[in-house]
Amino acid sequence: MKRTRNAFTLVELLVVIAIIGILVGLLLPAVQAAREAARRMQCQNNTKQLGLAMHNYESTYKRFPGGVGRYGCCWGTWQVSILPYIEQTAMYNLYQNSGGADPGPRYSATVNRPVVSSRLPTLTCPSDTPNAPIGGTTPITSHNYAVNYGNTSFFQTELNGIRFMGAPFHAYTGSTSDDGPPNAGAVAGFPRIYGVQQRLGSISDGTSNTLMASEVLQGRQNDLRGFTWWGGASGFVTYLAPNSTSPDVITGGICVSMLSPRMPCTTNTTVTAPRMMATRSTHAGGGVNTVFCDGHVTFISDNIDYIVWNSMGTSQGGEAFSHD
Length: 324
Description:
Blueprint: H1 10-61, H2 78-81, H3 89-94, H4 113-116, E1 145-148, E2 211-215, E3 235-236, E4 248-249, E5 265-266, E6 287-292, E7 297-301, H5 306-312
């Protein structure tokens, strides 16, 4: 009896392979979308945890932490202050001279490197690419959340006809360029007080209408955006729209302009474009996760009306708006 052998022909194999390829092509975007949805959810949860940490700090000290220290850029930002409230008390206890002045150690000092070289999961958005712009044997990390410095610039003064109307965090208020005293000898005669801590009760616009914090993107290579251990990258302003096409203005640091993700920047600080940074993310659909001063978290579209967005940055502007 003659036996016949059943087998696929070459044509049939090619058809099956083609079908599998089509199915993979159809499924891959769905898988990627599901993964991004999970990353965005994690980012929203991180934003919520940051809001809770700020409120726990405020409950303890009856005011929010300063955006920067008394003398500016380099002795620890709000990020150091909230470490005990994101389950990092041991790191907080290691950090020396938080908010202090020269000649004490700065954030980059050897004694503080074990802290600032750590990556904090609560402050890292999984949708972004981690970066550590300051190198060496213990590179200093960047992160993905910054606090609200108001509706103008980091200098918190009138800008191009827009009045500064208060903010829940203060930075380089009244400055025109500097980071703070350049050395120990300049501390005694330094005229300004940076990073003044604000009371929750000072937010007369209402805590549900005033932004507390939002997302930023970590720069690539030696770009200092997202470098929130440093005062120059510790905040954002609503003078720039979410994911703005206008450049971030970095003072005293390096930036690397990018088209993807969209991260325009300049180091040329001018009177009409002083030190400022926008809130940015890579989330699909365009927009950023934000937490307001009452603790509620909202995803805000890049298409939000600019006047509404600018008003969200003020704590004492008296504006009436709805962002729902």
